[in-house]
Hints:
This protein is mainly α. The chain is 75% helix and 2% strand.
Amino acid sequence: MKLFVHQLRSEQLLFWRSREAAFFIFGFPLLLFLLLGSVYTGKINGAPASSVLLAGMIGYGAANTAFAGTAIILVYRREYGILKRVRATPLPAWVYLASSLVSSLLVFLLETVLLFAVGRIFFGARLPGHIPSLVVAVLIGSVVFAALGLAAAALIRSAEGSSAAINFILLPMAFLSGSFGPTRHYPGFLRAIGDVLPLKYFIDLVKAIYLGGHAVWSRPGALGVLAAWTVVGVTVALLRFGWEPRER
């Protein structure tokens, strides 16, 4: 346990000392929420626009932190030989990976709190009423997208192209899933694509808890889809993840 705590502390220090990564992973969803919140007013689907956008930004934050952050960091560390050197130390592999994933969870938890603070201060968004269910949903989202981040890291070969590849997946997924606003006026084929993406179901789960006042278990369909995507991510990671550089 002491080894895990020590490695987790190291991961946090590395994250916050990297200003570019901290801004992209932690600060960008907050900035995006400020911009979108200034554009959307009134109501969306009968709920205050600021609260609907806040739920969408929580979803985007989960994908940005756990999926994009995990994938990009691990690809860089693998291709520059850091993972190889870690494997040569007595540090167990599971401790290293677990500390990296838990570190992203802590970042996302803090980001979620700040999103609510920004929404409340600047746009009058409501505060959550079912905090335990929301915390569980945040944990679920972190696990799902961390698993997919591991899978993406296993498939991406180049450190130089990792950011472009991840954003090529992340931004369209966020757009099609409703992170940036309602999707009801999208063409049918775009909505059909969104209907199979994990982010859509995570946002639906957050909306059910935050806007509808339901418990986290009230959306078994969404939980099932998220569980299926987690299995896919873990399976790909187990089959393809490596510690050795591929481009050197």
